[in-house]
Amino acid sequence: MAGALENVLEKKTGVTGSGWFGEHGRHRLTITVDGTEGAADGTYTLECAPNGGSHASPGAACARLDQLAADGLNPFKPVPRGTMCTQQYGGPQTARVRGQWQGRHIDAVFSRADGCEISRWNSLVPVLPAADGA
């Protein structure tokens, strides 16, 4: 029964895998950061429950992801088309986050190209590095 329901949910939502019935506290992410001109550039892994991977601060990063989930927020959702954003440039930093979050497959791209993207990036610090690249 769960398999059939999963197939229906996948078709309607685009969420793949066993996320609907899996362990929601577990996160497995690959994070690639570029443009910080510092030590934060590179590709890292982050695993939560238990916390680990090559991320510099897995405990703090996992706590942030858990808080966002508890608040019912999806930080990996792109800025909706047509959203009015301030035209301020936050820097050349880019990031791509792929993997499993809250039992769902995610593949999200981040930048600091305008006010909306800066806010989106900042909502994920310390999963993503602070703007200064520290």
TrEMBL record:
GO terms for molecular function: serine-type endopeptidase inhibitor activity. The keyword Secreted applies. GO terms for cellular component: extracellular region. It is found in: Secreted. Keywords: Disulfide bond, Protease inhibitor, Secreted, Serine protease inhibitor. It holds the Pfam family SSI. Residues 29-107 form the Subtilisin inhibitor domain. The keyword Secreted applies. Belongs to the protease inhibitor I16 (SSI) family. This is Subtilase-type protease inhibitor. The lineage of its organism: Bacteria, Bacillati, Actinomycetota, Actinomycetes, Kitasatosporales.
